Amino acid sequence: MSAILVLIDHETGATKKVSKQILTAARGLGGEVHAAMFGPGASDGAEVLGAFGASTVFVWSDVAVTAYATEPQVRALEAALDASGAEVLLFPSDPFVTDVAARAAVRRGAGVITDAVDLAVDGDVLVATKAIFGGDMVSRCAVRPGYPQFIGVKANAFTAEEAGGRPAKVVELDVEVDDAVRRAEVVEVVEQGSGERPEMTEASVIAAGGRGLGDAEGFRLIERLADALGGAVGASRAATDAGWYPHQHQIGQTGKTVAPQLYIGAGISGAIQHRAGMQTSQLIVAVNKDADAPIFSIADFGVVGDLHKVIPPLIEEINKRKG
Ligand SMILES: Cc1cc2nc3c(=O)[nH]c(=O)nc-3n(C[C@H](O)[C@H](O)[C@H](O)COP(=O)(O)OP(=O)(O)OC[C@H]3O[C@@H](n4cnc5c(N)ncnc54)[C@H](O)[C@@H]3O)c2cc1C
Predict the structure, then answer these.
(1) pTM of the full structure
(2) Read out DSSP for 83-111?
């Protein structure tokens, strides 16, 4: 296996969980693992990636490379690929990073696979496992040998584990970016934020609600459950379309894909489009008054009952055990 470059997603130097997970997966694949980190704070957060197995981190800390400035980041990624000699790029399957990786792939004639949930080595090729057709089928796919392999990995597909390695060597890249490349400028960033709660795709626990909540007020119950567990709040499309909860919390085929350690769905039927976004959760708990609701077919634990009667005592019990 050739050297592997992992494109790191970070918040001013703080590496996101998904990138630690990908580094952990990468070091099991047999090639030397490098990382690339761009934008403000990159230099500060690079060395510690050695703990997750990165031997060298290629950074470009140009403050103008703010998040979401795609084209300069594509240039930086190409410089990192050249410097590392990597023919394999692993990146988080999130919309912005995928945008950067996809553009770099076109420029380098690479094959691209997104949304991998598992990786295996077959000679010089990585075989990626991914769900297709809204999660109805599992596909194993690989880039044809001889081409650079760019593979997007889903959050929570792997567990992040430190390898206890030495601090990574940090190499500052010298990237030529003229005004023609800096065509777009980020003039303002408005945080949608989830308050004190973790971001949904990073959360270990998600409490999600659907049409069965009855109205927007019903989501206060789901928020209390999420807070008791230190988790994020998710929603079905029926609930977000009804305006009961913001769209960025929608889970599913046309929403976000999540794979927390614990997913609790209340008043959600479990339509295939919803399941496509959460069925790889490690433990699924469903609360639904209809014993035939499809969500029970993938639930590890199910409660057949009225969520308004089941959830409040559950929150009370969780808080009692915590306290
Ligand atoms: C192209 C396409 C893309 C889509 N993308 C998505 C997507 O990304 N995400 C998504 O979620 N959906 C998506 N949908 C919609 C999807 O098909 C379902 O319509 C939607 O998921 C249903 O949401 P729901 O389970 O909240 O509502 P419902 O299907 O109406 O289910 C409500 C459930 O609540 C239960 N219930 C009612 N009252 C209570 C109570 N008091 N206590 C306990 N249980 C109760 C009911 O028994 C029922 O099972 C998509 C559809 C299409 C066609």
Answers:
(1) 0.77
(2) HHT-SEEEEE-SHHHHHHHHHHHHHHT-E
